[in-house]
């Protein structure tokens, strides 16, 4: 599943890794808000952070172009146009108070953001890594964390009969734990939005367990119905609902077998 891209190819004028990381950053910012729209300032900010990584990115909070890296401001118009021309972005029919357009990452762009630059994994090893992931979910939820891993869905190659997979595609829904002293406050939540940092970075790092094959960034829980090819819920209400089985199928806990079709 996913895009088939020559690793040496250029996309919208950038090398594959940089281009992928730029779209991934845009999707990260988009998922912080109720809609998936991205304003022009966020586009420029992301270009500076990903394409011009060795340069100072901003002064102040970076809410306006004058607070952003001037080289990113200069680069943005041409780069954004290439992303539009190649189908990774689309323009929304609205503008902000400065007259700048709003954008959305397209389905093609979303596929690019999930593209892995690693060797494919044999199915048996992928199933093993999924089982280890589910063990980490149980371990995390048992320690009164700042957020619960409430629900998890599996999609992509591992719910097909493919003999190998590019990665293990997962969508996680997190909920605040009001009894935890580490629960994110409203002020901290605003800080995460303002700085572009991920308030779920700690739990995601734990769930990945250092494996490059565990992918948690493809979709957010609110976008679950946008997944093409189907999905299976493997954690429900903080409990593991489906476990890997020896023959490569999935088994619903206490219920029926769910073969990978």
Structure description:
The protein has helices spanning 16-30, 40-51, 70-85, 107-113, 123-141, 186-195, 201-208, and strands at 10-11, 14-15, 38-39, 89-95, 101-105, 121-122, 147-155, 164-165, 168-176, 214-215, 231-236, 239-240, 242-244, 250-252, 257-258. Helix 1 packs across helix 4 (107-113) and helix 5 (123-141) crosses helix 7. By secondary structure, it is α+β, with helices and mostly antiparallel strands. The chain has a five-stranded mixed beta sheet, covered by helices on one side. The chain has a three-stranded antiparallel beta sheet with strand order 3-5-4. This is Polymerase nucleotidyl transferase domain-containing protein. It comes from Aeromonas media.
Précis, in short:
With 261 residues, the chain is α+β, with helices and mostly antiparallel strands.
Structural Rg: 20 Å
Structural class: alpha+beta
β-strand percent reads 15-25%
The residue fraction in helices comes out at: 25-40%
> How would you write the strand order of the largest sheet?
10-9-7-11-12
Distance, first to last CA: 14 Å
Oligomeric state as shown: single chain
Give the overall pLDDT as a whole number: 83
What's the total count of β strands? 15
Q: What string gives the helices and strands in order?
A: EEHEHHEEHEHEEEHHEEEEEE
Shape: globular
The biggest beta sheet is recorded as: 5 strands, mixed
Number of helices: 7
Low-confidence stretches: 254-261
